[in-house]
Amino acid sequence: MSDTPARIPISACPICGKPAVEQHRPFCSRRCALLDLGRWIGGNYRVPDAKINEEEEETPRADDEEAE
Ligand SMILES: [Zn+2]
Fold first, then answer.
1. 13 CA to middle of ligand 1, Å?
2. CB 28, CB 35: distance < 8 Å
3. How far, in Å, from the CA of 5 to the mean position of ligand 1?
């Protein structure tokens, strides 16, 4: 027998950097898991602070202002 407690190191979520939860490892939430999954599938997922707007195209932001 081993007296060493099975200590699982908490890894940081690769998407947002928050501590990952076992349920959604290695992500912190289902949302981040889906974001990463979308990256593999489409290759054009959107993460607010992970992607820099290199090209500011004309984006209709009439709806955006009402969204918040
Ligand atoms: Zn996360």
1. 5
2. no
3. 27
Q: Could you give the CA distance from residue 32 to residue 55 in angstroms, rounded to a whole number?
A: 25
Q: Is the pLDDT score of 28 beyond 80?
A: yes
Angle at 25 between CA 19 and CA 31, to 5 degrees: 80
pLDDT-derived band of residue 27, with 50, 70 and 90 as boundaries? very high
Ligand 1 centre distance from Cα of residue 42 (Å): 19
CATH topology of domain 10-44: Erythroid Transcription Factor GATA-1; Chain A (3.30.50)
pLDDT at 15 over 70: yes
Q: How much is the pTM?
A: 0.46
What is residue 12's three-state secondary structure?
strand
Which sequence spans correspond to the domains of the chain?
10-44
